[in-house]
Amino acid sequence: MNSYQLFHSLHQNNSLLVLPTIWDAPGAALAAAQGAAAIATSSAALAWSLGYKDGEQLPVAELLAAVKRIQRVNKLPLSVDIEQGYSKDPEQVAKLVVQLVALGVVGINLEDGSESPELLCAKIRSCRAALAGKALFINARTDVYLAGLAEGQTAVEFCMERAALYQAAGANGLFIPCLTDLSAIQQLCQAIQLPINLMWLANLPDKTQLIAAGVKRLSYGPALFLHCYQSLQHQMAQQLGSDVLTSEQLTGLRLEQWYEIGAAV
Q1: Backbone angles phi, psi at 209, to 5 degrees
Q2: How far apart are CA 103 and CA 97, in angstroms?
Q3: What gap in Å lies between CA 167 and CA 95, rounded to an integer?
Q4: What is the largest CA-CA distance in the chain?
Q5: H helix or E strand, kind and range, residue 93
Q6: What's the pTM value of the predicted model, to 2 decimals?
Q7: Rounded to whole angstroms, how far apart are CA atoms 83 and 43?
Q8: Closest to 214 in 3D by CA, of 234, 235, 193
Q9: What's the mean pLDDT when you consider all of the chain?
Q10: How far is CA 112 from CA 1, 117, 185, in A?
């Protein structure tokens, strides 16, 4: 079984694929040492670690260089978050994807964001054409919940509609960040044929509930990065003789602060 086949099979079990989201080579090595079956990058964590804002502000050359560094030490299946593919042109997105596959990447996250579902379909189809049969797990991300495009049953129906479109275009999985309602999760897992990926949040149902609902994949977004740097901030405060930060202050290290840091570099 090659790396792609292993990664694909991890979405077919009656269990939950837990994907640590890393941003550098040491993180990849640490994940492997802790028994991870596969790893993924977080677009936000990767951008912030290199001094850029999230949202495709990281230059493509920097993205590819970071993936090369990770792959130098990594032996696990790797999925890379490429946001909206760094272009509205499906052919340009496909060129990036071909470069990533050449680096040994076996999966990508590709999102609809604020654009139309039809554009993401075109990007997925273009990637499949450019790959010419080469294996790649395309995890189509829909931002229905993250962007607050709808609520309640309407949001569920939006996700179902997009899932059908993305599957027909060639997607292997559906990523629905910020979905946390258990009844909606159950309904979507029953209605959608693609393996469903959720992102960890503090109010997400526990892993046992997610498995029972039919969720196949759980990733961590920027959570591990924030936890790591909150700990670093705490240690620096102690070493420099600053006031020791309370847990509330550590939790207060918001994403907006990282956006400001990235913008200042």
Answers
A1: -70, -40
A2: 10
A3: 21
A4: 58
A5: helix 90-102
A6: 0.91
A7: 7
A8: 193
A9: 92
A10: 31, 6, 20
